[in-house]
C-alpha cells in the first residue's frame, strides 16, 4: 500500500502544486484546478472540457486546443519510444472519445467457483429475486435508465450449466435459471456477455492440457451459441481469467475450438471475447505471449471480424481486485502499450473486469483510466466494472451494488463518480 486515503486528495493537490509540470496523462487544467498547467516533455496539455485538461503524448497541434467532439473521428498521431515496425496496420489514433460498451458484472451464478475451476454448486446465488438472490433485474434496469450503462457481464460456472458433469450438454433446469438472467439483461436493451467463469479449468484440470478436451469445450459453446444465435446483443466470453496455462499456443487452439463452434452454431456475427494467460492481465497480454498466440485465432471464413481480446485490470497494489485502495491508473504499465500493439495489429480489446473500493484513491485512478480508454476508443470497446449482483453492498470491498429505497436507487461512490457513463469520466470530467 503506497497511499493513504485520509487527506489523500488534499495531499495530492499539494504535491502537484509543488511540482512544475504535470506528468504524462496528469491533469493540467480545468475549473478550480490549482496544480501545474504545463506538461512534461513529449506531452501537451489537451483540453477535454471546462473541468479537465490532461497531458497527452505528442507536441502541440491545432486539434489540442479545441474540445474533441464525441461524434466525429479525431485522428491523433501517437508518439512511441519503440517505433512501431513497418508491418503495423496503423499507428494513428482514430478515437471518437466515446466507448461503445460500458457495463457492470452481475455476479452470482459464478459464486462457489474458485481459480482452480472447482465450482461448489450449493454456493450458487442466482442474482434474481425469484431465485432468492440479489435483484439483478432491478439493478440492470436502474443501471441502464439512470446511469447510461449499456453492457452487463453475466458470469456462470461451467458446472452449473451442465449440472456438474464434464460435458458440453446443458442441464435444462439450470440453464433455464441462467437464461432468465440473460433474458432480463437483453430486455433492458443492453449487450449481455455470457461469461464462463472457470479460469480455463474444470475441477482443477486445464482445458486441452490434461483437463476437458477441446472438443468437449467446443460442445459447451456450441450448445450455448445455438440458444443465442439470433440475438445480436449477446457477446460470447470464451473463458474468465485463464492463468498458469503452461502452453499458450495450445490454449489458443482451445480458444479457436470455441470460436469455430460458436460460429458454426449459427452465431455468425456476434462479438467473441478471446482471453489470454495470467488472469487476462492487460499488463502482460503482449509481453507474456498471449497476444501473439491469440492473433492466430480466426473465424471459419478466415477473418477476425468481431474477435476481440478480453483483458482485465484492477487498480490495487497487486492487481487482485481484493483491496479497497487503488494505487495506479494502469496507463503507463498497461493501457498505453496495449493500445499501441492493438493499433499496430488492427485489433481491439475489451476491459471486462476493473474496479476498486469506494474510496477517494479509486475515484481518482479509475476515472483517469476510463478517460484514457475513451481517448483510445478506436482500440478499446469499453470496460465492465466488477461487480454488482448478489454481493452484499455493506461487506463486499468492491461492491457496485446499488441500494434501493422505495423506487429510488442509490449508487456506490465509484459507480456514480467514474463507472457510470453519466458521470462524465469518459471526457475527463469526474466526480459528478
Ligand atoms: C508467462 O509465460 C511463461 C513462458 O511462456 C509461462 O511459463 C508462464 O506460465 C506465463 N505466466 C503467466 C502468469 O501467464
Ligand atoms: C501477471 O500480471 C501482473 C500484473 O497484472 C504482474 O504483476 C505479474 O508479474 C504477472 N505475472 C506473470 C507471471 O507474468
Ligand atoms: C476482484 C474480484 O472480485 N474478483 C472476483 C472475480 O470472480 C471470482 C469468482 O466469482 C471471485 O472469486 C473474485 O473475487
TrEMBL record:
Record-listed E.C. numbers: 3.2.1.4
One GO cellular component term noted in the UniProt record for this chain: extracellular region
Location of region: Disordered: 58-91
Origin superkingdom: Eukaryota
CBM1 domain span: 20-56
Gene Ontology molecular functions: cellulase activity; cellulose binding
Record Pfam families: CBM_1 (PF00734), Cellulase (PF00150)
Biased composition (Low complexity): 59-91
PANTHER family in alphabetical order: CBM1 DOMAIN-CONTAINING PROTEIN, ENDO-BETA-1,4-GLUCANASE A
UniProt protein name: cellulase
Amino acid at each position: 500500500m503506497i497511499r493513504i486515503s485520509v487527506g489523500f486528495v488534499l495531499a495530492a493537490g499539494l504535491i502537484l502544486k509543488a511540482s512544475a509540470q504535470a506528468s504524462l496523462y496528469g491533469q493540467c487544467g480545468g475549473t478550480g484546478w490549482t496544480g501545474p498547467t504545463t506538461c512534461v516533455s513529449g506531452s501537451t496539455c489537451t483540453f477535454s472540457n471546462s473541468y479537465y485538461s490532461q497531458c497527452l503524448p505528442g507536441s502541440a497541434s491545432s486539434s489540442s486546443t479545441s474540445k474533441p467532439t464525441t461524434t466525429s473521428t479525431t485522428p491523433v498521431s501517437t508518439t512511441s519510444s519503440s517505433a512501431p515496425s513497418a508491418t503495423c496496420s496503423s499507428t494513428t489514433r482514430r478515437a471518437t472519445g466515446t466507448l461503445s460498451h460500458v457495463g457492470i458484472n452481475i455476479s452470482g451464478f459464478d459464486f462457489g467457483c474458485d481459480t482452480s475451476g472447482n465450482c461448489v454448486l450449493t454456493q450458487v446465488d442466482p442474482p434474481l429475486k425469484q431465485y432468492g438472490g440479489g435483484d439483478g433485474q432491478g439493478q440492470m434496469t436502474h443501471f441502464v435508465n439512470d446511469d447510461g450503462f449499456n453492457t452487463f457481464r453475466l458470469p456462470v460456472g461451467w458446472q452449473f450449466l451442465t449440472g456438474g458433469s464434464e460435458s458440453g450438454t446443458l442441464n435444462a433446469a439450470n440453464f433455464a435459471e441462467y437464461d432468465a438472467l440473460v433474458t432480463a439483461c437483453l430486455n433492458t436493451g443492453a449487450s449481455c456477455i455470457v461469461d464462463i467463469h472457470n479460469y480455463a479449468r474444470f475441477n482443477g484440470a486445464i482445458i486441452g492440457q490434461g483437463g476437458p478436451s477441446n472438443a468437449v469445450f467446443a460442445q459447451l459453446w456450441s450448445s450455448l451459441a445455438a440458444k443465442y444465435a439470433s440475438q445480436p446483443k449477446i457477446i460470447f466470453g470464451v473463458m474468465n481469467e485463464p492463468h498458469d496455462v503452461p502452453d499458450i499456443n495450445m490454449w489458443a487452439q482451445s480458444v479457436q475450438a470455441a470460436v469455430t463452434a460458436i460460429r458454426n452454431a449459427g452465431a455468425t456475427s456476434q462479438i467473441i471475447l478471446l482471453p489470454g494467460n495470467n488472469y487476462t492481465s492487460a499488463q502482460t497480454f503482449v509481453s507474456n505471449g498471449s497476444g501473439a498466440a491469440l492473433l492466430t485465432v480466426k473465424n471459419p471464413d478466415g477473418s477476425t471480424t468481431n474477435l476481440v481480446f478480453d483483458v482485465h485490470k484492477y487498480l490495487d497494489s497487486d492487481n487482485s481486485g481484493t483491496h479497497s485502495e487503488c494505487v495506479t491508473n494502469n496507463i503507463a504499465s498497461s493501457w498505453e502499450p496495449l493500445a499501441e500493439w492493438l493499433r499496430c495489429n488492427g485489433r481491439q480489446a475489451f476491459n471486462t473486469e476493473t474496479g476498486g473500493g469506494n474510496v477517494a484513491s479509486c475515484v481518482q485512478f479509475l476515472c483517469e483510466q476510463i478517460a484514457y480508454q475513451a481517448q483510445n476508443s478506436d482500440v478499446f470497446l469499453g470496460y465492465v466494472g466488477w461487480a454488482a449482483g448478489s454481493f452484499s453492498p455493506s461487506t463486499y470491498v468492491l461492491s457496485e451494488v446499488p441500494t434501493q429505497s422505495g423506487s429510488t436507487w442509490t449508487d456506490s461512490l465509484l459507480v456514480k463518480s467514474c463507472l457510470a457513463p453519466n458521470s462524465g469520466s469518459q471526457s475527463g470530467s469526474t466526480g459528478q
